[in-house]
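Handoff note, outgoing to incoming analyst
You'll be picking up this chain. Sequence as last confirmed:
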Amino acid sequence: MRTLDLIECAEFLKIDRTTLLDIVHRGDILGAKIGRAWVFLEDDVVAYLREQVQAQTQKRIEQIRSGSPATEARVDKAIRKQLSATDPRRLGRKARPLPRLPDVDTAPTAMAA
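Most recent structure output, in case you need it:
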């Protein structure tokens, strides 16, 4: 069983250490303060992360299934954008003709030995 300190745990979760301390004080992640240092079990951190993934995924699924007006509007806008020939915001650069290069002699040149 691997243990993590405060900084390692924050890096594992890709969050700031102050955010991690807020989560710990709410009781969402189990950890112990041993002396001056916080210690976390990797299994507990992974369990917290899995709970968050499941909860957020479930929330997104419910929003899609509920057909909320905001979701419907975003979906319609995305579909219209994909079906449109061009996006008016991205006109791009105008094509420029290639520059005229000077003619090069085709006669072989003598190379110095």
